[in-house]
Amino acid sequence: GNSVTQMEGPVTLSEEAFLTINCTYTATGYPSLFWYVQYPGEGLQLLLKATKADDKGSNKGFEATYRKETTSFHLEKGSVQVSDSAVYFCALRVRGGYQKVTFGTGTKLQVIP
Amino acid sequence: GAVVSQHPSRVICKSGTSVKIECRSLDFQATTMFWYRQFPKQSLMLMATSNEGSKATYEQGVEKDKFLINHASLTLSTLTVTSAHPEDSSFYICSARVPAGGQETQYFGPGTRLLVL
What we know:
Shape of chain B: globular
Oligomer: heterodimer
Strand content of chain A: over 45%
Low-confidence stretches of chain A: none
Mean pLDDT of chain B: 88
Largest sheet of chain B: 7 strands, mixed
Distance between the termini of chain A: 41 Å
Distance between the termini of chain B: 37 Å
Order of helices and strands of chain B: EEEEEEEEEEE
Number of helices of chain B: 0
Radius of gyration of chain B: 14 Å
Structural class of chain A: mainly beta
Largest sheet of chain A: 6 strands, mixed
Order of helices and strands of chain A: EEEEEEEEEEEE
């Protein structure tokens, strides 16, 4: 079956620090990969996505590269801000059917001033 | 971007009662909506896929008679937790799928916190 594994949190960083949140996956077929972000009290929002190997998704300074050889989609940001504090979910979706999304367990990021 | 709302945002009920949660797509029509359940420190688990005008498709292990899903219109899907028990306490999240076009995306609601006493 399909599964997503991401690093456990919480991750606490100082402002302007470099961020990496690891994500690896197993999937039948050729999935699309996503990072979602959930700010406190809000719903999930799509942060970025990649649909094929070596694609790099990017948004708001965050980046992730679809690595088929290592089945990974690690999230990075060069300089985090306090406003980046949220829970980040790695996810995949395989083609066909209802296009169900499989989520990782989420990683809470706390950025302190 | 597209907006999905859920109502209520939080509900507390007594054991044995039924609770209805609404999921609405506010500025688009969604032929497909998904219902997820999220336990503390765990991932979102897909419960069912809801298609407008047809019966929902439930994931393995999800009781159909326990979690009733109705998708009567292109902008509204409801999840009813029947005869709720404390173990049903959880965070329920819906998402709505924007119809095709090659850049399909799911938009998520803010979630509903259910506490069964």
